[in-house]
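Design a sequence for this backbone.
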């Protein structure tokens, strides 16, 4: 697991002060490396029907490789402004950036990485014909839940 090993050895400064494009590329490589472990965890879930899960590790190309049907996958990705505004409110952000010489630049790099990641997920959804929702914050949470429920054919009473 060369990318996972490399990332584990980096300090916060080394992690967040790198080029966001490189960070994004490595993020996809990390999910590729750990995907079998993600699947192993899912296989341990005792559920007779279906499982709805959330996480960046479920990238469209990996879902396609598993043979996940279009009706069983949807990606929700954020707009840049939406992403940044919500991350600025998260209490853990200062801890993640601890040790960075320029926390504002490190945060900006982190957000740029995540936006590049979201753009690539949207691109992969298009290539693999998977559904996706681009969330710019204008969709109320109930509407988002309804869209996902409809996609999965779930009965959802708002």
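Sequence:
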């Amino acid at each position: 697991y060369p990318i996972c090993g490399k990332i584990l050895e980096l300090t916060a400064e080394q992690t967040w002060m790198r080029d966001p494009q490189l960070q994004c590329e490595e993020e996809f490589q990390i999910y590729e490396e750990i995907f079998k472990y993600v699947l192993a965890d899912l296989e341990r879930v005792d559920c007779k029907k279906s499982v709805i899960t959330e996480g960046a590790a479920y990238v469209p190309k990996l879902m396609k490789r598993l043979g996940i049907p279009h009706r069983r996958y949807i990606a929700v990705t954020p707009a840049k402004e939406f992403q940044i505004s919500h991350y600025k409110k998260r209490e853990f952000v200062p801890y993640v950036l601890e040790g960075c010489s320029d926390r504002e630049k490190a945060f900006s790099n982190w957000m740029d990485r995540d936006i590049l990641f979201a753009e690539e997920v949207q691109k992969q959804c298009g290539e693999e014909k998977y559904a996706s929702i681009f969330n710019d914050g204008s969709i109320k949470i109930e509407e988002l839940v309804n869209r996902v429920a409809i996609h999965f054919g779930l009965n959802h009473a708002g």
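The radius of gyration is 17 Å.
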